[in-house]
Amino acid sequence: MNSLDKSTIRDVNLAPAGRLKMDWAKEHMPVLNRLRERLSVEKPLAGKKVAISLHLEAKTACLAELIRDAGAEVIITGSNPLSTQDDIAAALAVAGVTVHAKYDPTPEEYKEHLIKTLEEKPDYIIDDGGDLVGILHSERPDLLENVKGGCEETTTGILRLRALEKAKELRFPMIAVNDACSKFLFDNRYGTGQSVWDGINRTTNLVVAGKTVVVVGYGWCGRGVAMRAKGLGARVIVTEVDPIKATEAYMDGYLVMPMSEAAKQGDYFVTTTGNKNVVNADHLREMKHGAILANAGHFNVEIDVEALEQMSVSKQTVRKDIEEYTLADGRKLYLLAEGRLVNLAAGDGHPAEIMDMTFALQALSLLYVAENHEQIGPRVLDVPYQIDEQVSRYFLEANGVQIDSLTPAQEKYLASWELE
């Protein structure tokens, strides 16, 4: 049975539109293209199956095709119900990748797509948020036998992996791609910063300048969101639980205060924590009329949507991806993209050039696991520095940027304890 016959997609007739999007992204992903030149000849993954759970849009499709070109049989599903693009899913299925994903599936369908992906019995996995790993270690341990290792894309997923490792339950090695410098410094900061505001602005069609933006959490994603909000002319408030990150936000020029105080002031609220209920019922009660709520964390748990539903006397869709909740006192609060990832559920995600770096890390890390899984053992591993450095070098070369190198004398000086 070919990949198209095995796939679970919305409409194969959407494939030409998806291919156009993929070709556009590919033109702006020079690092992946450089890797493709080598891997398509060497075929290091020949005879292997790779399962992928990522946000299924054009840049992800370029990664899937790179891994296919490296010789692997690729099975892919979406890591978020509202970020899958049906035309991309169709284009991949036509191109020889097995796809189990549709835009806005029911919770049951979403789960079924994940399980179908694992039932192909992959050798390696690329995960986003830990859904594949979670199912393998809880509901379907019968599918663990073939899995030799994989990579994780997100902070949320790595937290899950480290919890599994700490409990001595992790069954195979996983590389923490999110923790690579070439990932979080650029993807999390510049990618999230730009794509979140792309999603908010195209969805609301409202001005940001002069408004108050509350950024909940000041990790690398929060830094990016705050930086772009400031650039758009907003007054920015940061809320944090970590005193070190709070100090950094303060020194970066932002107002820092508890969420209970920020809730009274914000026009926009953007969550970036990876934790649940960081905007809760108490905060919602304090918000002013017209406040806009958006999530830029992984799962749709950061804003307590259930509490918002219970507090409301009516709800209606006022624009695509905007739900208006009217409270008993007449105030109206607006939730974007059902509280899911606003940059993907209501936008196109990170820019192609940014994901070029991240997906190059994924591809090279996957090859590293394939070559070394027996020696690594069942643990969470950082991206090897040589891979991290290589990706940034490729990126600089692709953009025509040259840098200096240490002289032998400088290398000797740095490696010596003697002050000569």
From TrEMBL:
- Binding-site positions, NAD(+): 154-156, 188, 217-224, 240, 275, 296-298, 343, 350
Q: Where are the transmembrane segments?
A: none
Keyword tags? Cytoplasm, Hydrolase, NAD, One-carbon metabolism
SMART domains, alphabetized? AdoHcyase, AdoHcyase_NAD
Tell me, what is an example of a GO biological process annotation in this record?
S-adenosylmethionine cycle
Q: What is its main location?
A: cytoplasm
Q: Where is the signal peptide?
A: none
Example of a GO MF term: adenosylhomocysteinase activity
Question: Which cofactors does the annotated protein need, by name?
Answer: NAD(+)
Top-level taxon of origin? Bacteria
The UniProt catalytic activity note for this protein reads: S-adenosyl-L-homocysteine + H2O = L-homocysteine + adenosine
Q: Which residues does the annotation say bind substrate?
A: 128, 153, 183, 187
As for family, the record states: Belongs to the adenosylhomocysteinase family.
Name of the protein in question: Adenosylhomocysteinase
What organism is the protein native to? Answer: Laceyella tengchongensis
